[in-house]
Amino acid sequence: MTIHILTHPLGKHYLSHLRDINTKPALFRTLSKKLTTLLLLQATEDLTTKNIQISTPLKKINAPYIKEQIVVIPILRAGLGMLEAATELLPDVDVGYIGLERDEKTAIASSYYKKFPSLKNKKIIILDPMLATGGTVLKTVETLKKEKPKSIKFVSIIAAPEGVKKINTIAPDVEIYTASLDKKLNSQKYIVPGLGDFGDRLYGTF
User: Is the pTM of this model over 0.90?
Assistant: First the structure.
């Protein structure tokens, strides 16, 4: 199973606040950014470097710089709440966007918008805070693979076992990074215990 669950105590602390119904949108946005940073640190541990000669104030040295080209792709709209952490943390990162809407009755995702930089031979990180049924992520992965990237990773705040199982079955090469593997999906396909609708809580649109 290609899932990595964040174990850092700060990650657990931030997530507890995000779950709390009393957490206001301003704090929710701040903690989402902090938690995403921790998740991205874990998701990028395998990046490779190349040495480039630079001059320090004292001498010339061969210093390591990130070798790969990285593209982050937030799934609209909730994924935008994770984007700032990515652009601040990752050097020279490119950004693409995809808009997918889930049918509330069928839980099937359909695309209404996409705009990507060049993805060929690049490392892709998909950002979406909730991995529920997995349909939205798999639709995104299907779209991205047509561009022949080097690899695809998915970063979420929380995940449901049903979504993880579906991704591991259909797209086992996609590694999942999340702060929590929650208990289940309810009859409305919401994650339990979850944290409610991430986008609504992020932007205060209830």
Answer: yes
What is the rounded CA–CA span in Å between residue 134 and residue 140? 10
Q: Which residues of the chain have pLDDT under 50?
A: none
User: Which residue matches tokens 């010339």?
Assistant: 60
30 annotated active-site: no
Q: Is 173 a catalytic residue?
A: no
For tokens 């999906």, what's the residue? Answer: 185
162 sits in which H/E element: helix 161-170
Over the stretch 8-51, which tens digit does the pLDDT of each residue have?
Answer: 999 999 999 999 999 999 999 999 999 999 999 999 999 999 99
Class of domain 3-47+67-203: alpha beta
Q: Side-chain half-sphere of 13: how many Cα atoms within 13 Å?
A: 5
Query: Is 200 a residue of the active site?
Result: yes
**14 token code pair:** 């931030």
Tell me whether residue 19 is one of the annotated catalytic residues. Answer: no
- Cα 153 from chain centroid (whole Å): 8
The CA distances from residue 195 to 16, 160, 168, 182, in Å, are 9, 12, 24, 10
**Which residues in 12-38 are b (16+ Cβ under 10 Å) and which e?**
eebbebbbeeebeeeebbebbbbbbbb
Domain ranges for the chain, please list them. 3-47+67-203
